[in-house]
Q: What sequence folds into this?
């Protein structure tokens, strides 16, 4: 339905535009009165009132149609289905939806439910399509009648564009509010069952068995891996930014900067594979060798490759472009007059960079590092694949630990019911992670606003 509906809407919009512009051209040629708007705006006006109502109907079907079909079908199920809870009923309807294009299963009741599902879906889809066609025709007729020499088509079209921009902004804000509200609600459900104090300060985490929900090991693992990652990304990214902005020739910069930023385009799952297959075994081998076991059997080397150090190192490489790109932009924003003044005072290149450029760019650099920390804390795939799954507090960087994001993935993987503490704990962890990253972002903005230097 998607591509067909888009094609029909595009054709209807083009036809409406041509009709509206033709009417505007006729008025401009035949009427002695001065046209208030150009003929193109009349075409845009007719096309807008033809396409928008129909698109709204199709969008309503995409959002509410399937839910309406399921609610009607659920109300028609036999009495025996009353014993199923909401989760089991949803699973049953999911199976029915998946079986719509499959041959019959030989189960009379299930096949009847599938057939009824298809009938309801077809009827609802047809109703929405007819409504879309009717709204498009009505909008076309009414908008076409309003075309006149003194009609302010341009103001109406620009008002429609402004309304579309407002709706886009409202959707972004509503999405953010919805995320926060959902996290708050599910987290509140969790904290009605588990003490907030035990969650924030408990030292034992065993959510899979619904027994221990002390999240301190998860907090420790998250910040430990982020610290390792920043120990890699901060100096390398900052030094790369200084070199590219202050020392590299334009030709060298044109080659190095795109190559460096290629790292930002690599999917995180690729970094995760690289971490678990290459870096983690090397870290494990180096740790065993340092501990005096240079001739360890291969099966022991492969026994536990996951480690905080491996995940942190690879994550640091991943966020190098993040640090270098932001720092490079900040350093380049420092006025050239400051550099020229330092050179006029007899300062060398390195002295100018250390004593003039970097102090002037320091607020922006700090903000870039704080944003990079937020990126490291929220990383999922690398820590899920390379850090391990054991919730523990260990100062040994070669040991396997787990993080908040890795536990969220583990808790929500598979068929999860939202009426137990295990699943709800994932939302509590997500809410804590949201607050932490929000605090880092607010601190970064505050640093920039407080210490930013303005130049004429």
A:
């Amino acid at each position: 339905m998607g591509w067909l509906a888009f094609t029909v809407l595009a054709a209807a919009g083009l036809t409406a535009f041509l009709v509206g512009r033709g009417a505007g051209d006729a008025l401009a040629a035949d009427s002695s009165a001065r046209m208030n708007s150009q003929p193109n705006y009349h075409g845009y006006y007719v096309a807008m009132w033809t396409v928008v109502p129909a698109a709204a109907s199709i969008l309503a079907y995409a959002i509410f149609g399937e839910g309406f079909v399921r609610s009607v079908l659920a109300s028609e199920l036999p009495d025996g289905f009353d014993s199923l809870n909401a989760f089991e009923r949803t699973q049953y309807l999911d199976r029915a939806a998946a079986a719509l294009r499959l041959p019959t299963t030989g189960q009379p009741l299930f096949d009847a439910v599938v057939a009824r599902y298809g009938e309801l879906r077809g009827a609802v889809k047809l109703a929405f399509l007819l409504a879309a066609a009717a709204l498009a025709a009505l909008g076309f007729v009414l908008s076409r009648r309003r075309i006149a020499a003194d009609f302010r088509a341009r103001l109406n079209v620009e008002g429609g564009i402004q309304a579309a921009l407002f709706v886009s902004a409202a959707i972004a804000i509503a999405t953010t509010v919805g995320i926060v509200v959902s996290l708050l609600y599910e987290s509140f459900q969790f904290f009605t069952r588990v003490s907030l104090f035990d969650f924030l300060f408990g030292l034992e985490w065993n959510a899979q068995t619904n027994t221990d929900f002390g999240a301190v090991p998860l907090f420790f693992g998250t910040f430990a891996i982020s610290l390792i990652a920043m120990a890699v990304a901060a100096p390398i990214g900052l030094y790369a930014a200084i070199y590219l902005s202050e020392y590299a020739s334009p030709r060298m910069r044109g080659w190095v900067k795109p190559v460096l930023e290629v790292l930002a385009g690599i999917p995180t799952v690729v970094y995760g594979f690289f971490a678990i297959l290459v870096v983690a075994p090397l870290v494990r081998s180096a740790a065993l060798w340092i501990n005096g076991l240079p001739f360890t059997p291969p099966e022991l080397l492969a026994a536990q490759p996951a480690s905080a150090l491996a995940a942190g190192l690879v994550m640091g490489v991943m966020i190098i472009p993040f640090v270098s790109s932001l720092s490079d932009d900040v350093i380049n924003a420092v006025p050239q007059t400051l550099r020229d003044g330092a050179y006029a005072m007899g300062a060398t290149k390195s002295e100018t960079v250390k004593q003039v450029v970097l102090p002037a760019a320091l607020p922006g650099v700090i903000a870039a590092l704080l944003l990079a920390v937020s990126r490291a804390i929220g990383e999922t795939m690398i820590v899920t694949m390379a850090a391990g799954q054991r919730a523990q507090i260990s100062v040994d960087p070669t040991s396997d630990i787990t993080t908040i994001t890795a536990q969220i993935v583990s808790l929500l993987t598979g068929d999860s019911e939202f009426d137990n503490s295990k699943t709800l704990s994932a939302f509590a962890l997500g809410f804590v992670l949201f607050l932490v990253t929000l605090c880092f972002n607010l601190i970064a903005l505050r640093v920039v606003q407080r210490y930013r230097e303005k130049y004429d």
About this structure: Residues 153-191 form the longest helix (39 residues).
